Amino acid sequence: MSLSLRTISREQHLAYIQSLPSASHCQVPAWADVKNEWRSENLGWFDDGTGQLVGVGLVLYRQLPKVKRYLAYLPEGPVINWYAPNLDEWLQPMLKHLKQQGAFTVKMGPPVIIRRWDAGAVKAGIADPNVLRLRDVEATYVEPRAFEVADRLRRMGWQQGEDGGAGFGDVQPRYVYQVPLENRSLDDILKGFNQLWRRNIKKAEKAGVQVIQGGYDDLPVWQHLYEITATRDHFRPRPLSYFQRMWTTLNGEDPNRMRLYLAMHEGEAVAAATMLTVGQHVWYSYGASANHKREVRPSNAMQWRMLRDAYAMGASVYDLRGISDSLDDKDHLFGLIQFKVGTGGQAAEYLGEWDFPLNKLLHKALDIYMSRR
């Protein structure tokens, strides 16, 4: 297949995404409006033989201070055939185009999973005092084609970026935790939860915790809980305006793209979470909880409600998003994997983010700047 690449409209981009079973929420056109501090462009790959659109990419451009040169970033994209034997024929025109647009370096995140670990393998790793990293645990499933993709990228001159941690900030996570929903009953899914999770769901129900869907006007309630969580967990919170913009732009594109859930106890919101949907892929995006009433287990109740709703929508996967690959209980991010493994799902490792320096001097300067932040 001979390919050509050009800028496309948002409408063309969205129509292509809607024709797929799923794609990353970071690659829908409205994500550019969420990240409004970046300039954006919608790219399309066309089959020269048929004229058909066969791939898309949302590019975010961030300008360097004082010069008209840009970091070009395709978060969890582009949305192309990553297993194509002629992968360079997909990516070389993109690099050429981005260089013409003033990019000095390109960063992308191939949406390709390389390994999966089922809950049993993760738990065994946690229990073994000699194992400190998920990557040291034997994977339950390995995708050999993903290694071929990585080899092709290296041969083209792409460099593997630093791990994105658990997905805080603008860098996307390399390790995530997912609950497969396809060809399973809700009963099977609940049975897959560990004993503690099932007990906590019952405890929340008995205590009278009710999980409701909120709307735009409830975002200040979300923000209050989120800022409490940020103080407790020592991270810098995003402002309320960010979530308001997320709500209006994403739901403006698709009325079911973003949801807000609130766990209520005795008339008070004690936990909250946002949920994103693209096709059959549903993400638990952000979560927050109060410092009190943790004993009524609102977070477990909320996750179970969100997972059930995802199932009712026909989702094939409920994605709990980022985890660290650390299995060391002294690591500050260990609690994430400990909480998520209770759902009985799978840890998954993506290929991670990759960089292509179009100007090596400016790329090096960016590396130094980022390491000092």
Structural class: alpha+beta
CATH topology of the largest domain: Aminopeptidase
Oligomer: single chain
The poorly predicted ranges are: 164-169
Number of domains: 2
Describe this structure in words.
About 2% of the residues have low confidence. The chain is built from 12 helices and 16 strands. α7 crosses α10. With 373 residues, it is α+β, with helices and mostly antiparallel strands. β3 and β4 form a beta hairpin. It has a 9-stranded mixed beta sheet with strand order 7-6-15-9-14-13-12-11-10. Strands 1-2-3-4-5-16-8 form a 7-stranded mixed beta sheet, with helices on both faces. The protein folds into 2 domains: 127 residues, 3-Layer(aba) Sandwich (Aminopeptidase), CATH 3.40.630.30; 205 residues, 3-Layer(aba) Sandwich (Aminopeptidase), CATH 3.40.630.30. GO terms for molecular function: aminoacyltransferase activity. Keywords: Acyltransferase, Cell shape, Cell wall biogenesis/degradation, Peptidoglycan synthesis, Transferase. Belongs to the FemABX family. This is Peptidoglycan bridge formation protein FemAB.
Short description:
About 35% of the residues lie in helices and about 25% in strands. The protein has helices spanning about 10-20, 30-35, 85-100, 120-125, 145-155, 185-190, 195-205, 220-235, 240-255, 300-310, 335-340, 360-370; strands spanning about 5, 40-45, 55-65, 70-75, 105-110, 115-120, 140, 160, 175-180, 210-215, 260-265, 270-280, 280-290, 315-320, 345-350, 355.
